From TrEMBL:
Reaction equation(s) it catalyzes: L-homoserine + ATP = O-phospho-L-homoserine + ADP + H(+)
Official protein name in the record: Homoserine kinase
Region Disordered, annotated ranges: 296-321
Pfam families: GHMP_kinases_C, GHMP_kinases_N
Function field: Catalyzes the ATP-dependent phosphorylation of L-homoserine to L-homoserine phosphate.
Localization in the cell: Cytoplasm
Phylogenetic lineage: Bacteria, Pseudomonadati, Thermomicrobiota, Thermomicrobia, Thermomicrobiales
Protein family per UniProt: Belongs to the GHMP kinase family. Homoserine kinase subfamily.
MF terms in GO: ATP binding; homoserine kinase activity
Species of origin: Thermalbibacter longus
Length: 321
């Protein structure tokens, strides 16, 4: 068997939606697995994910343990265009990719919802993994009866403009600067803006995103770690973005714009990079509405062992994740 899993990047929070809102983006992690008929598992993690852990393999093993089965001998290769520790959901993509791959290898013992629940457990929160699995904009929360997630419709086309610093930022550091308590006024404003954000996206009232993506809960504190943040948000808005925010826990900045305004927003963010003497990428991405996908072929495709880009995928059968 040969299979390939493609998982999008994601940006969480979207301003006030701390650990609850996220959106999938058109950069991808790809996991390719080829069964070998031997007992050994050969894992080749992506160099881009070289933080000392192989989250793809860890996720595959976690699913195998959960269902009481053993992974077959196989060769696992991972390629990622999602930079690590930039607030773009690289770990969530790796976990979702590993779970989807293992589920196919083991005969699909889990439903899509089962994969989502396990991904949430492994990641520790549900925003990025939900966006990575289902695509589009999502709302995820720990409800009274357990994890709950729903997709938030996006009523009209949007593009994401991102400022992605070369220097990584770490979630542990970004959480460490947050206060343990906030005022009632901050709690009220955060709840109201989350509601406004869902309303704006689902009804196409994108002019509301400027207010909806503003935040008092975490961004003012994280701005001490990322001194360009306030400037970047203002610059994106001046370039025509509907709204802008820190992407996840940073250090990247996300702006949402109309397709015909995205290039002007990109130019404004490029000027921020120059003003702050940063080394960074400024890019325009689509919203990944499809989420993770799986391609499966019963036999090894020609050239599969050389490179994923050389695989003949015409013989594979697309399967929605």
């Amino acid at each position: 068997m040969w299979l390939s899993v493609r998982v999008p990047a994601s940006s969480a929070n979207l301003g006030p939606g701390f650990d609850a809102l996220a959106i999938a983006l058109s950069r991808y992690l790809v996991v390719t697995v080829e069964t070998t008929g031997h007992q050994q598992i050969e894992a080749l993690p992506a160099r881009e994910l070289g933080d000392g852990r192989d989250l793809v393999l860890e996720a595959m093993q976690a699913l195998a343990r959960l269902v009481g089965k053993r992974l077959p001998g196989c060769r696992i290769e991972v390629e990622s265009a999602i930079p690590v520790a930039r607030g773009l959901g690289s770990s969530a993509a790796a976990i979702v990719g590993g779970l989807l791959a293992a589920n196919v290898l083991l005969g699909t013992p889990l439903t899509k919802e089962g994969i989502w629940r396990l991904a949430w457990q492994l990641e520790g929160h549900g925003d990025n993994v939900t966006a990575a699995l289902y695509g589009g904009a999502v709302l995820a929360l720990e409800g009274q009866a357990g994890p709950l997630a729903r997709q938030v419709p996006i009523a009209a086309p949007l593009r994401a403009v991102l400022l992605i610093p070369d220097q990584p930022g770490y979630t542990s550091e970004a959480r460490a600067v947050l206060p343990d308590q906030v005022t009632r006024q901050v709690a009220i404003a955060t709840a109201a803006r989350c509601a406004l954000l869902v309303l704006a996206l689902s009804t196409g009232q994108f002019a509301l995103l400027g207010e909806a993506m503003a935040d008092d809960l975490h961004q003012p504190y994280r701005a001490t770690l990322y001194p360009y943040l306030v400037d970047a948000i203002a610059a994106a808005r001046s370039g025509g973005a509907y709204g802008a925010c820190l992407s996840g826990s940073g250090p990247s900045v996300l702006a949402l714009a109309a397709p015909d305004s995205a290039e002007a927003v990109r130019r404004q963010l490029a000027r921020v990079v120059e003003r702050h003497h940063m080394s960074a990428e400024v890019t325009i991405l689509d919203i990944a509405n499809e989420g993770a996908t799986v391609n499966v072929a019963p036999q090894t495709s020609p050239g599969a062992q050389s490179t994923r880009r050389g695989i003949d995928r015409s013989a594979s059968t697309p399967v929605k994740a």
